[in-house]
Amino acid sequence: MDIAGGEAQAFLVNSNDALEFKLVRHPKDLKDDETTFKPEMSHQVFGDNETIFGYRDLRVKLYYTAGKLVTYMNVDYKEKADPEKFEGVEADDIPRILADKLQPGFLTNLDTFVTSLNKESKFKPYGELINLFKTSKDGIEPSTYEIYLCDTSDSEFVKYHERLQTFILWYIDGSSFIDTDDSNWRFFVCYEKYKLDGKTMYAIAGYATVYQYYAYPKNIRPRISQFLVLPPFQRQGIGANLLRTIYNNFRGQDEVLDITVEDPSQDFQYLRDYVDCENMMKLDSYQAHKLKDGFSEEMAREARSKLKINKRQARRVYEILRLKATNRKDKEDYKQYRLNIKRRLNTPFQREKKTILRLKCVLDEDELKATEHLKSQEQRLENLDRQYKELEEDYQHVIERLAASLS
After folding, report:
1. Which tens digits make up the pLDDT trace of 195-205?
2. Angle at 68 between CA 27 and CA 123, to 5 degrees
3. ω before 27 within 30° of 0 (cis)?
4. Residues 7, 87, 262, 298: which is the catalytic one?
5. 400: part of which helix (H) or strand (E)?
6. 128 is catalytic
């Protein structure tokens, strides 16, 4: 049966709309819409179309206590589809679908969940406290945040992480749960520290996972794998502080070659660029008067030795900082900048041209037709111009954030 048509359409629900999350500190939060936040995606749980079949006025509630992350799940709806009216097609079994992702033992009784809030004051973060900072949003009094470093040797933390990692399904595309039997994982967990009824409490704000890859001969290359600041805590500078904390933890270790990132999203790349620009602006080889001389091996060496930044990211930060130092009202200054970036962007095409020339020497006419997919000079120039414009827009985004932080 085609459940996308006819009467069945009334029982198709967008799963992003139906889902709602809370980090509950006090029972009153349960009735406060301002404490509710929504997923950015749900295809990793409810399929590519992000739809749920079989319900009218559906609300899927996933509530967590703010510190311990005791989990409550509830499915509320006005009407459930009768299979006899839809050729035997059953409504999606939401509790079963979610149970496959949630840690066993989650609650379905709201009164039991509310009672569990009484134990929140006993919760203390796992691991080692490695950073403390204050930040605020919209002029509100600054809140205190603490970041803890954890590993898989703590079995209680591993159980806690089973509840924590469920958030990545809704906010990190292509995410998967990690193997906590592997001792090379490191976890950087950020909490808001606050007072409630005179007691010190903790609320989860975000976390990051880092895998320590082996690098020959006796080195490691940490790779940031998952990085998440939960929606109630976004746009407060917490992400930047979390990334700085990861950097500071590994930069002091002689065995670390450089710090890399696994498939960064655009938002994370902006964050990474911003923090790296902050740090590299302080390096001698990245001072404004040296940027017009071009990217050099000295720049790559200094970024790696002092900040553990790899050459590719160092080159990207160089381009951002050079754009920042470029007078775009000066036609010649701006032209030289564009040419510098386009030369780098054009490098793959130059390799492609050399390959075609070599092929012409050894292939017959029919075989050469297989290379016709390679872009013409005109197509390449159009593509190069488009790539440059997109890149400059990305760089400008970082430059504007740098300017705001310095104002």
Report:
1. 999 999 999 99
2. 100
3. no
4. 262
5. helix 377-406
6. no
